[in-house]
């Protein structure tokens, strides 16, 4: 029997609270040809025991010390044995037909480098709060320019990508703590076609322990740095496109200023 088709990358740091729910959602997939590559980023809680209790379909690896999420995702991805890579964090959930539908589309359209979908937002007890595409819809046109001119519309937990493309573009950026997936999809979308499903195929959990989010100055600061590096390496763009990118970056700089002022208790809440 050969290697499975999908490597599910799970990065974990002290994620025991919702970890079983996340792993169970992979075992509940209607598509069965997968492995889980579980990268424990030096957790100190019960995450290791939970992950190892699932047997050989969860390939457990433990880091000697905690690293950035960008570095940890690359270390996990390098252990993947499959032609497709998916990402699931240990507080999120997949709907049962997520992999089946995405693999079918990728198999049918070999030119695609990556597919993603809408997702539900849920709270700590699983109550639905809304949908990602209600906040930011994917553009009808160029996904790459869309990622530079509007809020990120690709939920990381819904991504399925080709492993050979990930190897070609250079894995995740090791210095990034919050926006490694945004940097990655920008690099993929720049030179490769991507596609999406309108329907939610996953659930993104919002809770007090989320390390990223639109209210995080670390996220905003990193996103600006990623955009600046990307734009610097671009060939000449049209005036309209450059203006749209500059407008987006200006809005992010204003947002970062407000976040810093709030953090310093100088802004009314």
Task: Give, in order, the helices and strands.
Answer: EHEHEHEEHEEHHEHHEHH
Cα gyration radius (Å):
18 Å
Structural category is alpha/beta
Largest sheet: 9 strands, mixed
Oligomer: single chain
Q: Write down the overall geometry.
A: globular
Helix count, per DSSP?
A: 10
Low-confidence stretches: none
Count of DSSP strands: 9
What amount of the residues lies in strands? 15-25%
Head-to-tail CA distance between termini: 59 Å
**Average pLDDT rating:** 93
Q: Percent helix among the residues?
A: 40-55%
Question: What's the quick description here?
Answer:
With 269 residues, this protein is an alpha/beta fold. Helix content is 41%, strand content 20%. It has ten helices and nine strands.
List the helices and strands and how they pair.
Elements: E1 6-12, H1 16-27, E2 34-40, H2 47-52, E3 58-62, H3 69-78, E4 84-87, E5 93-94, H4 98-108, E6 114-122, E7 128-131, H5 132-135, H6 143-149, E8 160-162, H7 163-169, H8 180-191, E9 194-205, H9 217-232, H10 239-263
Parallel strand pairs: 1-2, 1-4, 2-3, 6-9
Antiparallel strand pairs: 4-8, 5-9, 6-7, 6-8
Helix pairs in contact: 6-8, 8-9, 9-10
Verbal overview:
The protein has about 270 residues and is of the alpha/beta class. The chain is built from 10 helices and 9 strands. It has helices at about 15-25, 45-50, 70-80, 100-110, 130-135, 145-150, 165-170, 180-190, 215-230, 240-265, and strands at about 5-10, 35-40, 60, 85, 95, 115-120, 130, 160, 195-205. Strands 1, 2, 3, 4, 5, 6, 7, 8 and 9 form a 9-stranded mixed β-sheet that branches. Helix 9 (about 215-230) packs antiparallel against helix 10.
């Amino acid at each position: 029997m050969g290697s499975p088709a999908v490597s599910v990358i799970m990065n974990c740091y002290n994620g025991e609270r919702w970890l079983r729910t996340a792993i169970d959602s992979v075992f509940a997939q209607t598509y069965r040809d997968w492995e889980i590559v579980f990268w424990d980023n030096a957790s100190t809680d019960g995450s290791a025991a939970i992950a190892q209790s699932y047997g050989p379909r969860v390939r457990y690896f433990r880091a000697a010390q905690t690293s950035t999420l960008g570095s940890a995702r690359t270390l996990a991805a390098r252990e993947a044995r499959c032609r497709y890579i998916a990402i699931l964090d240990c507080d999120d959930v997949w709907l049962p037909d997520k992999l089946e539908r995405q693999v079918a589309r990728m198999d049918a359209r070999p030119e695609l480098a990556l597919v993603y979908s809408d997702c539900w937002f849920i709270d700590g007890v699983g109550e639905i709060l809304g949908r990602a595409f209600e906040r930011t819809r994917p553009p009808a046109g160029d996904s790459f320019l869309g990622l530079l001119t509007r809020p990120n519309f690709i939920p990381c937990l819904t991504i399925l990508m080709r492993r050979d493309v990930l190897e070609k573009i250079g894995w995740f950026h090791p210095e990034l703590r919050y926006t490694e997936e945004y940097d990655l999809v920008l690099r993929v979308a720049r030179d490769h076609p991507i596609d999406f499903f309108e329907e939610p195929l996953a659930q993104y959990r919002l809770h007090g322990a989320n390390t990223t989010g639109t209210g995080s100055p670390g996220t905003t600061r990193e996103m600006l740095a990623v955009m600046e590096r990307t734009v610097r390496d671009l060939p000449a763009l049209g005036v309209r496109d450059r203006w749209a990118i500059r407008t987006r970056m200006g809005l992010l700089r204003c947002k970062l200023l407000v976040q810093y002022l709030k953090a310093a208790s100088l802004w009314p809440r």
